[in-house]
Amino acid sequence: MATGAQPRAGIWTTRWTTLTLVLIPVGIAINFVGKFVAQALKLPLWLDSIGTVLAAFIAGPWVGALTGALNNIIYGLTVDPVSFWYFITSVGIGLSAGIMARLGFIRTTARAVVAGLVVALVATVVSFPINIYLWGGQTGNVWGDALFTALTLRGVPLWLASFLDELAVDLPDKVLTVLIAFGLFKALPRRLLSQFQLGEGELRHTA
Amino acid sequence: MRPVGLYVERRSPLHALDPITKLVYAVCLALVPFVAGDLRVTFVALAGNLALLAVGRVVREGLLALAGVGFFLATLFLVQGMVYPGNATPLVSIGPLVLYREGLAYAVWLTARFINLTLSAFVLLFTTRPADLVEELVRAGLPPRAGYVLLSVLQIIPSMAARVSVIQDAQRSRGMETEGPIWVRMRALLPVLGPLVISSLVAMQERALALEVRGFGAPGPRTFYRPPWRHRIAWPVRLAAVSALLGALIWRLAG
Prior knowledge:
The complex is a heterodimer.
Chain A: H1 18-40, H2 50-59, H3 61-78, H4 87-102, H5 109-135, H6 142-153, H7 158-187, H8 190-194, H9 200-206
Chain B: H1 13-16, H2 19-36, H3 39-55, H4 59-67, H5 70-83, E1 90-94, E2 97-100, H6 101-125, H7 130-139, H8 144-173, H9 182-187, H10 189-213, H11 234-254
Antiparallel strand pairs in B: 1-2
């Protein structure tokens, strides 16, 4: 190790341990509970991906993507079959949240807002073609669909109206989701987080 | 606390059928309208699914669950009736709003396709215990670790949901407001989610240790607690479901 650059934890490196595997169901359960609390407080938001984002912050993009994917699979297999279609959206949320975290966007609140905007954009870009295919462009959210109708009647192309419909819902939802996950992440004990980080010794094996 | 999912404990021929066969059926029948691209075929599939729900004695539960999305389906008719790009023939006008025939026909198609998808899934979901489905999937080749992840979600969610109400009560007694304007309710999110999420993540370490002590990471094949689920008509049903999907494809190609 005397010569050459010191290997660094890359964006994609993941430490696969039993703890990582246990993080995934806990993340999925947090997604579920976030949605449950948002409904209990009658908030006009979904807040159903806090756990996916948190898992991605803690253990990187791959774990985030896997949490998102399994979230929609288990949801589709138990409660809501339509969630299978949006499986790819969840994967996008997990991947983008993990990449932003590894790029250093969860150091300050201001940066976390930027990370939230990126996640919202990714979620929108992935979701709106599915919305067009399944629902003729609607999202099922009353405010977003009202915007969609108003825009289309004024001659805005369907794909753009559908994109803006989804964005109108996803922008506040995902920015708030990322900020909540950021706040929770900051409150986690370091002892827990250190078990997911690639230590120096670990890296020498993989390098 | 009620377990997660739509499963209804009953005795019926459908409940006795093995989970994989029902999964194959649900996937094939849900896809039939997407492949066939035809409304009449969709109605045939829909009728078949309703009949099967009757065999499983869960029609009432299925229709009740479907009623939850009734409002969205109504907006589908309203919005597509107005803005569908192919709209040409005005049919009804309500004040300044005009609903077109083409848009409404499109909404009928989207709705029928959606209801068929949901009812196909219900044939599986209402009659199959999620734990049985996951166990059979592992037997069919799903990695046991993935099986663990799926199953443990089903155990963690009820215990976390139960803790939500305890934490909510505790924070309310400290003065947290859960009603009022939206920003007041928004502020209640962190005091509820914070303790819940952090304690679950900390408890995760113990869970991981407990699993490792019991040989979770051990190499070698896994054994099953229960014998494989065999059913006389499993293969005929699977074949019928796959041929229905193939039939839909032929229908599409034959135009």
